[in-house]
């Protein structure tokens, strides 16, 4: 009978799942045993992730509830509706379990939660798409189904045939990229969802979550998941099943993918907050000895300069995306001085700000300019004014005239296009 599952914590607090659970009948228990055995034998890699990180508080492999259509996941646990789930042939049950676990491996539920908060998807070329959760769920299903069908894992249920179309979504693509293709697709929406994509962590209270899968805060431990995925990839490689598709897919997940936001944050952490030497200022202790030597400058963030290509190649959406992220990073860094220089072929405007949060305000003033592009005026101005920035970060598409020589301060190019001809500095390709 349906009933709420309650866990009593040490302090007496009661935690209840948002999904009332049910107890399996005897025939269902037998079918569940067959499903587990078949899945363990035929899907060893996914079984490893399931047993290592997703077992229930009762050391089971799934929770059973009538409050999902057939099956669902919140990124931490599997939730199965006994009647429709066990009505499926065994090979389709295997497929469905692998489908749910793949969503968890790819962290799809967490991504959906983040996008739900913003309500939109921003792309580096300026495109802004409103969030359609149905379309996002379809994008995620297309990726997972392409991987499972290619790896020949179980049998794709007929109800989900419309959610396997490599033309629109492949296992090697991101769900955000597939979402964009679906937005441009003129065909009507596809029905036949296999599973419910639940809010991340919404149905698995923190005290229920597998302790190996979470950190001290009860949230996902990404290091533990990466380790389990690596082990799963090795299991798949050794057993040689699924034509090598699954081992390659899992292996690709282990290649470090550092987001451009993290690269920018790392750049500032590395280049600021520490002392450097510069010939722009001579060491006064050495001068009295008749020796010219570079002086130590800065014990923290003193001056940060932001250059913005205002020739028209940087879209409003890219500018908004860039300034929003930079604002958060610099707010924590708290530089003593923050200078924004807008430049196309010549400097069009300069804004000296007292706080990083003002970056969002000056965006509303618009980007002056619109002519050709030269980066030289910004570097010349810095030299002429004898400025010694802790760092210069320049937002551009990279198409323009560069200085002949690299400056003696750190430079980071925030590139909105694939351009390889930056002669100096670090380059971060801005992506959504």
UniProtKB/TrEMBL annotation:
Residues 304-430 form the VWA-like domain. Pfam families: DUF2201, DUF2201_N. It comes from Beijerinckia indica subsp. indica (strain ATCC 9039 / DSM 1715 / NCIMB 8712). Residues 187-198 have a biased composition (Basic and acidic residues). It comes from the Bacteria. InterPro entries: Put_metallopeptidase_dom, VWA-like_dom. Coiled coil: none annotated. Residues 187-207 are annotated as: Disordered. This is VWA-like domain-containing protein.
